[in-house]
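Q: what sequence does this backbone want?
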């Protein structure tokens, strides 16, 4: 696929496929080059996006020394390079501490104001605060979709949470342990 397509789409994989010997800045510049973003714009966006995910102070350190949460934030930042029209995020808050999750959720919410953002996650509580429209998938098929209000409206008032609405579609997994079907996502 050409750089024109890569400029329109931002993607964050679930697997942290990063170059350990690259610094965060170098990785962002590398992704910018793949997208055909000019060096001047890439520098500006790299500074801004790494600041947004609170990695500005370590952007010149090797990624190999980063924690899993820091690597996750680099991947979220790189997905937004070039201001893509469509952003695909696969488990963007997995492995993040509560503060980092809030930072990423806020960034996703802000990004979604003028872009299409698709988030695949098993962390249902994250979706509740950022999504306008939710699709619950089960084994590759749509099990339910709608707004948070629509999805929870079928529940008794005291049980109206998105997690409970989600679990309606997975009764076999509705155990005290809270296990979730690995073939499902929100």
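A:
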């Amino acid at each position: 696929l050409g750089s024109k397509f890569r400029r329109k789409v931002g993607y964050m994989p679930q697997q942290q496929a990063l170059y350990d010997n690259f610094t965060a800045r170098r990785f962002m510049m590398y992704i910018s080059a793949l997208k055909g973003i000019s060096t001047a714009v890439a520098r500006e966006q790299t500074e801004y996006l790494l600041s947004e995910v609170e990695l500005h102070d370590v952007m010149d350190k090797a990624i190999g020394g980063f924690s899993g949460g820091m690597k996750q934030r680099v991947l979220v930042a790189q997905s937004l390079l070039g201001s893509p029209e469509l952003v695909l995020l696969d488990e963007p808050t997995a492995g993040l501490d509560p503060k980092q999750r809030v930072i990423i959720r806020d960034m996703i919410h802000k990004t979604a104001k003028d872009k299409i953002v698709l988030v695949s996650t098993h962390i249902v509580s994250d979706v509740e605060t950022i999504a306008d429209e939710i699709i619950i998938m089960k084994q590759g098929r749509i099990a339910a979709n709608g707004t948070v209000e629509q999805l929870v409206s079928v529940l008794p008032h005291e049980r109206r949470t998105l997690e409970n609405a989600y679990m309606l579609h997975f009764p076999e997994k509705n155990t005290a342990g809270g296990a979730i079907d690995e073939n499902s996502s929100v």
